[in-house]
TrEMBL record:
Source organism per UniProt: Deinococcus hohokamensis
Residue ranges annotated for the NADPH-dependent FMN reductase-like domain, each copy included: 6-143
Source domain of life: Bacteria
InterPro entries, sorted: Flavoprotein-like_sf, FMN_Rdtase-like_dom
Protein name, per record: Flavodoxin family protein
TM ranges: none
Length: 204
């Protein structure tokens, strides 16, 4: 069975230079590939005009409809965000708000378009907040139809008031590598199960 993964990077950086969120996404991607998962692309939200709103199409110039199509075409979504002032980035919040439309886009069995898709969370920051941000994303992703495997987040936070970024570390800490390996293994396993046997939905 061939599985595919895609990532969204909700860094506030719109430029081409790599971000620490990219580095954490890359760690998860490398682990997913060990399980035969094909990786398609990382979409950096800051480079696209994702308009505010809670529908799947907010009109002319809205980049979300195409991004929506691409993430729903994959079996696994890696949702990456940095921590800013203890919260997920504003772009991550906007993506979650746009996914709210899934609740009203169910099929005849009551299944949202994201049903059967697995989500992984990647969080980086130089302050406390990784548990808070992953908790927020766990609930909102689950509410909008995504399925999360056991241990579905990989994160790194530096010392408080420190200037070191994840991408600048001389080596990835062993615990972070181990966490990424387990998260990827669980996500690939769950995605295969859901692809083989879909959620039944409501009885007709």
């Amino acid at each position: 069975m061939t599985l595919s993964a895609i990532a969204i990077n909700c860094s506030l950086k719109s430029g081409p230079e790599p971000s620490s969120t990219d580095a954490m996404i890359g760690l998860l991607v490398s682990e997913l590939k060990k399980h035969g998962v094909a990786f398609t692309e990382t979409i950096r939200i800051a480079q696209h005009d994702v308009k505010p709103g809670v529908t799947s199409d907010e009109g002319e110039g809205d980049a979300w409809p195409d991004i929506r199509r691409r993430i729903l075409a994959a079996d696994i979504l890696i949702f990456g965000t940095p921590i800013w002032v203890g919260q997920m980035s504003s772009l991550a919040q906007r993506v979650i708000e746009r996914m709210d439309a899934f609740l009203s886009e169910t099929d005849d069995a009551g299944r949202m378009p994201s049903f059967g898709k697995v989500a992984l969370v990647a969080v980086v920051g130089n302050e406390d907040g990784a548990h808070h941000v992953s908790g927020q994303l766990y609930q909102t992703l689950n509410d909008t139809g995504w399925t999360l495997a056991a241990g579905a987040v990989c994160y790194w936070t530096g010392e408080a008031m420190h200037k070191t970024d994840f991408r600048d570390l001389p080596a990835i800490p062993d615990k972070v590598s181990q966490t990424a390996a387990m998260a990827a293994s669980n996500a690939a396993h769950l995605a295969a199960l859901l692809k083989a046997t879909a959620y039944p939905g409501l009885p007709g």
